[in-house]
Amino acid sequence: MVQLRSIIRSADNTGAKSIQIIHVYTGSRHKKGTIGDIVMGVVRQAIPNSMVNKKDKVKLVIVRTKKEIRRSDGSYIRFSDNAGVIIDNQKNPRGTRIFGPIAREVKQLGFNKIASMAKEVY
User: Fold this and answer.
1) Which of these, 29, 28, 26, 33, lies nearest to 83 by C-alpha position?
2) Are 23 and 40 in contact (CB under 8 A)?
3) Which of 28, 41, 50, 53 has its CA at 20 to 30 Å from residue 17's CA atom?
4) Dihedral over alpha carbons 96, 22, 44, 89 (to 10 degrees)
């Protein structure tokens, strides 16, 4: 689960190192986002001369969370960090590589391009 002002890592090669969450796009009463949710964030740290710069507003989809999520078969999955992939308005990733594992719920929610670029899908 990530909420407002959470700091998460970028799981792609757009150049962002850390991103602060400023809005969760799940509904008016939702304040927390989980795997597969689209959020708005501000880039807090970035690599110089990259696709995104410091203070840029970006949309991203959450691909890993420390808080476990329950699957339909009764099992739970959790990761060691909170991470997201920066996307454009058509829900396509802006980067060309995805680092680290992602949850298979991301593919089930319609982000097929992200799932195909990832090395591991759990």
Assistant:
1) 33
2) yes
3) 28
4) 30
The span from the CA of 110 to the CA of 102, in Å, is 14
Picking from 109, 119, 120, 65, the residue whose alpha carbon sits closest to that of residue 87 is: 109
Write phi, then psi, for 40 (nearest 5 degrees): -105, 140
pTM, two decimals, is 0.94
Query: If the chain, 122 residues long, is cut into consecutive pieces of 10 residues, what is the mean pLDDT of each piece?
Result: 96 97 90 95 97 97 97 96 97 96 95 95 94
Closest alpha carbon to 50 in 18, 17, 15, 85: 15
Name the residue type at position 16: A
Instruction: Spell out the domains of the chain, with CATH numbers in brackets.
Output: 2-121 (2.40.150.20)
Residue 55's Cβ-count burial label (10 Å; 0-12, 13-18, 19+) is: exposed
Q: What is the rounded distance in angstroms from the CA atom of residue 86 to the CA atom of residue 74?
A: 30
Residue 9 pairs with which residues in a beta bridge?
A: 18, 83
